Amino acid sequence: MVAAEVIPGPRIGEAWGLTLHPLQHSGPKFVQRTGMLEPRSRQLDGHVASGCLPGEQILAWAPGVRKGLEPELPGTLICTNLRVTFQPCGWQRSQETPLSSEYDFALVNIGRLEAVSGLSRVQLLRPGSPLKFIPEEILIHGRDFRLLRVAFEAGGLEPQAFQVTMAIVQARAQNSQVQQYAGIPLSKAGQSSGSRKPPVPLLETSEDWEAERKKQGARGWRVSTVNERFDIATSLPRYFWVPKRTLDSEVRRAFGHFHQGRGPRLSWHHPGGSDLLRCGGFYTASDPNKEDIRAVESMLQAGHSDVVLVDTVDELPSLADVQLAHLRLRALCLPDSSAAEEKWLSALEGTRWLDYVRSCLRKASDISVLVTSRVRSVVLQERGDRDFNGLLSSLVQLLSVPEARTLLGFQSLVQREWVAAGHPFLTRLGVTGASEEAPVFLLFLDCVWQLLQQFPAEFEFSEFFLLALHDSARVPDTLTFLRDTPWERGKQGGQFNSYTQIYNPGYCQPPAGNSVNSQLSVWDWDLRYNSEQILQFHNPGYDPEHCPDSWLPRQQPSFMVPGPPSAVWLFSRGALTPLNQLCPWRDNPSLLAVSSRWLPRAAISSESLADQEWGLPSHWGACPLPPGLLLPGYLGPQIRLWRRCYLRGRPEVQASQLPQSLASRMSYPIFRSF
C-alpha cells in the first residue's frame, strides 16, 4: 500500500517523448526480483496501462493506499524502462497534455535513491547494489531538487515493495549505459497534421536565419551556408551570420585558425549599431597567411573602427567549479542536510553558487555597457565558445533590450544562443555520465531569476516559466536538450516526418535540401501544461510601457558615437587594455599568452564599468546611461537564493504547501508559493 509525499513543481512528463532501447532482461532471476513478467502488466488498472507510450515497458509496480502527509494521497508506484512515476488513485493523463505529470521522474533525473526501514535503517541504492531489506519507504531525490517519497504498508505487499525498488535500481543501471535515444511518436500530439509550425523558430533553415537577421536590422551581415553539411564544425549550426563582404571561401579558411573551428560570427546586432560577436580561442599553433589574417581581422572588426576583445573566462568559475558548487548546493538543500539551522546561511555561502551567480551578472553588466555605450564590435572569446560565451551573450541581450525580456523573445534567445550555438546539454547536464558535467545553463537560469527579482516590471515571463524551463533541461523527451551538437540534433531530427510518424530508427542522414521536418521541441508547452498553467507563465507585474522603444539611438543620435580610429582593446579582469592588434600571429606565430599582446600602457581599470563613467578612456567623455539598459545589483543580499527551485524537496516546505484537496492538486500541480 502506497502513499506519497510529492514535492510540487512544473514538470513536463519526464522522458515521455522518447524511447530508450528496450531493457535487456538478465534472465529469470531478474524477472523474479523485479516483477517484470509480461502478464502482470495486463493486470494493471486500465488508466495506468493506457498512459504508456510505444516502446515504454512497465517493469514493476506497487498499488495500495496508506496515510501519508495530509491530505492522504493514495495511488500506485510504477517503474518503466523510461521513468518512475506515482499515479494517484483516480488520476489519469489528459489527452490534451499527454506529456504532463508532476509525478514523473526520468531515470536520468534520479540523483539519489534511498531505501528506509524503521527509524534507523537507511540504505543508499546505487546501480547494481543489492537491497538488504524489505523497505518501508523509498526516497527518490531528483537532480532537479525535487523529492518523491513513497511509503509501503505491511499487509501482504512486501514482495511488491522489494520488486519495485529493485526494478528502479536495475533500470537506472541499464539506463546509464544507454547513450542512443530515439524519438517516439505521440499519437495525441500531432492532433491535426504533421505540418505544425514550431512555436519558436528552431533556426535550422537558412530562411529562419535570414528572418532573424532582418528582425535585428543587421544590414552589414549575411547568412553563410559554408557549414551546411557540418564540414567546418559539427558543434556550429548549419547557418550563421558573417560580414556581408566576407566570402565563404574566406570564412572556411579563417575558421580553421580557431579552436574546434568556431570562428568569429555575429551573435547579436544592437539596435544602436554595435555588434556582439562570439568565437573560440585562437588556434595559435596554426600558421595563417596574410590573406587569412586579414580575413580574421575583418571578421572581428565587423566594419567597426572600435573593437573590444573580451576574455570571457576571466573572473568566472571554471566548469569544475560550477559542478562542485551545484553538487554542494544540492546536498545542502536535501531534507536530511546535516547543516544546523543557525549555520545554514554560512553553509550556503560555502557552496560558492551565489558567488558564481554574482560574478556572471557583474561581467554581463560590464559587457552590456561596452556594447551600448559606443558603436563598436565587442567579441566574446572563450576557448570552446560553447559555455560562458552563450551565458554572457544571453545576459547582455536581456540587460540591453526589452525584446529579449518578452516570453517569445526569451525563448528565441535560448534557442539561438544555446541550442543552435551548440551548447553541450547532454554532457553538461550529466545525462551521458561524462566527466565534463557542469550545469552552466542552470547557472544562467539562476542569473535570469535574479534579474526578474530585481526588475519585476521589465519581464513578461514569470518565475514559474523559468522553473518549468529549469526542469525541462533534465527531461529527455525532446531534441532541444537531447544532444550536444546541432549535427547530432539534425541527424536525429531527420527521423521525424511529423508528430505522428517516425522513420526507421537506423536512418541517420540529415534531411535533404534546405528543409527540416517538424519535430517536438521544448517550446511546445501546450503538450505539457493546460491553458490555465500556461497563463501563469506570464508575469502579472509586467509593464510594457515601462520599457518603451523611444530610447533607441535613431531618436537620440548623441547616444552612440564612434570611438577613435582603429582602437583595439582587450577587456580582461575588469580592465580595458589597448592592444597592438587583434590577431596574435602578427608578431609571433607561437604566441600563447594573451598578455603579450598588450601595449606597455596602463590598463583602464575599474571596480565596474558602470560605476566609473563606464570605465572608458577620458577622451571619449562620459556617456549617459541609455534608457532601457538594466544594470543589476550583485553585492551582498542583492543576490538571493532561488527558494522555489532549490528548497522544494524539504519536508517543511512540502508540509506548508499541501493543497486542501486532491482535486486542487490535480488541477494545478505546479504553482505553489512558499
Automatic annotation (TrEMBL):
<dbReference type="InterPro" id="IPR030564">
    <property type="entry name" value="Myotubularin"/>
</dbReference>
<comment type="similarity">
    <text>Belongs to the protein-tyrosine phosphatase family. Non-receptor class myotubularin subfamily.</text>
</comment>
<dbReference type="Pfam" id="PF12578">
    <property type="entry name" value="3-PAP"/>
</dbReference>
<protein>
    <submittedName>
        <fullName>Myotubularin-related protein 11 isoform X4</fullName>
    </submittedName>
</protein>
<dbReference type="Pfam" id="PF06602">
    <property type="entry name" value="Myotub-related"/>
</dbReference>
<feature type="region of interest" description="Disordered">
    <location>
        <begin position="187"/>
        <end position="207"/>
    </location>
</feature>
<dbReference type="InterPro" id="IPR010569">
    <property type="entry name" value="Myotubularin-like_Pase_dom"/>
</dbReference>
<feature type="domain" description="Myotubularin phosphatase">
    <location>
        <begin position="203"/>
        <end position="646"/>
    </location>
</feature>
<dbReference type="GO" id="GO:0046856">
    <property type="term" value="P:phosphatidylinositol dephosphorylation"/>
</dbReference>
<dbReference type="GO" id="GO:0016020">
    <property type="term" value="C:membrane"/>
</dbReference>
<dbReference type="GO" id="GO:0005737">
    <property type="term" value="C:cytoplasm"/>
</dbReference>
<dbReference type="InterPro" id="IPR022587">
    <property type="entry name" value="MTMR12-like_C"/>
</dbReference>
<dbReference type="InterPro" id="IPR029021">
    <property type="entry name" value="Prot-tyrosine_phosphatase-like"/>
</dbReference>
